[in-house]
Amino acid sequence: MHPLFLLFLLGLTTYFIVQRVSDETRTPTWLLWVVAMMPAFIWSGWAIVNGGRKAPPSYLVIIPLMVCLLLYWFLIQWGRVSSNAGTTERQEATTTKQENADPPSEMPILKPIDKSEEQSLQTCFPWSIYYLQNIEYRPQAVICRGQLRSKPEVAYQTIRENVEEQFGDRFLVVFQEGANGKPFFALVANPYSKQSPGQAARDVVTRPALAISLLVITFFTTCFAWLQIVGKLGSNNGFVQISPDVLVQGLPYALSLLLILGSHELAHYLTARRYKIRATLPYFIPVLPLPWFPFGTFGAFIQLRSPIPNRRALFDVGIAGPLVGFIIALPLLIWGLAHSEVVPMPQNPELFNFQAFDPKFSLLLTLLSKLMLGSVLTTETAIKMHPVAVASSLGLVVTAFNLMPVGQLDGGHIVHAMLGQRAGAMVGQFARLMLLLLSFAQRYLMLWAIILFLMPANDEPALNDVTELDNRRDFWGIVSLAILLLIILPAPAFVTNLFNI
């Protein structure tokens, strides 16, 4: 594929990612996009000048990447909207719009509270629950500060019910920890109020026809993808006539991949519905199989269209998808590896050459491959993977990416729910740095590291963002991070030596 076309696709994707950072900084989006794309511009220029025949030298890869990532981070910090504790809390109070909620331009404006309403508001805070000390008026929120005198969940439930009794559905009640560690309440305009302009249009959430259509299209693209993976579509990626034989060849791969991705998103959807969170049906993203991306789909997603009520719901919605996807993918991978073949290792093995696959890039894949194939798998052999094994391996890769504890990924939701918003953001910053360092040993992780650095580090707060999780959920959060490490970490030398791989 021509480098300019690849550059166009990368630029378009990068622009949508950079746009997500616009709420956190005053730095212009176009400037962040140029800095983020500069390494790609340099590498594409090298490829065009040399006709793609010569790889760029290491210094031309590492130096632009490191410099531009540091400059990107500096520009975000330099243009931060919040520069002190007071403005930080103001930003927190106005971040209740969810990651996939309606655009800010459609958010209703907060109507001022008059004196009589202020007296009514004060009665919503019983002194034995939350002793209200002062009320601050902000352009998009009413901040209520005081002393917490009960359990956070009791305080939130009581005050939310009192506010709803006094003001109906006019406000969303947000409960967060301030910069000083003291929890405060904020009343923000409710975009889902029945009196809100355009609410009738926003009520349309699920679109079954669209979801089914995308599923059917993705089924056909993934069936054809298997032919691309095994090299039967030809180097020119020419048109292949749809026939039962083509579908049958790609059926094991397509069904396995759709099952893993679909169960992942369906778990998110059902968990969101259990907590009465408005959510779309799972939407698959079909893509024509190409030599540089032969998999037939970019995955699937759902959109949350209403606020997440508390950290418990945030955790459950976040962990449900990767956990269910992993539970589905693991037995499929074991079965697929048991039906795979062992072939001689090529002289220059490629990472995702599924006709001669080297599993050592992942500790989990190494252990499972040796378990299922036994002594025939050695340092001189590779695996010709069964279609089900290929699909489940890709499913594990998708699971690992979603479990990265950064921003609005599933892993970001998990650490936010476990540790709180600020601590979760710090873990995300650390994870991005560690992944970048690991990517110099595991080259396939380089793209992940770049994408994660472009994404916002902060996750959106839940309405009750103070109440902590129970020990059971903390345990499953640790399990999810262990699964991430098992998938992305390469097999250490003592493991490969022990198993002679």
Q: Care to describe what's here?
A:
The protein is of the alpha+beta class and 501 residues long. The protein has three domains: 3-78; 98-198, Gyrase A, domain 2 (2-Layer Sandwich); 208-499, no CATH class. The protein is built from 17 helices and eight strands. It has helices spanning 3-19, 29-49, 58-78, 85-93, 115-122, 152-167, 199-202, 208-229, 244-274, 311-338, 363-373, 387-402, 410-419, 421-439, 446-454, 471-488, 493-499, and strands at 130-138, 141-148, 171-177, 183-189, 283-286, 297-301, 341-344, 381-384. Strands 1-2-4-3 form a four-stranded antiparallel β-sheet, sandwiched between helices. The protein has a two-stranded antiparallel ribbon with strand order 5-6. Strands 7-8 form a two-stranded antiparallel ribbon. α9 packs antiparallel against α10 (311-338) and α13 (410-419) runs antiparallel to α16 (471-488). The longest helix has 31 residues, at 244-274. It is globular and about 80 Å long. The chain starts with a helix and ends with a helix. Mean pLDDT is 82; it is low at 82-107 and 235-239.
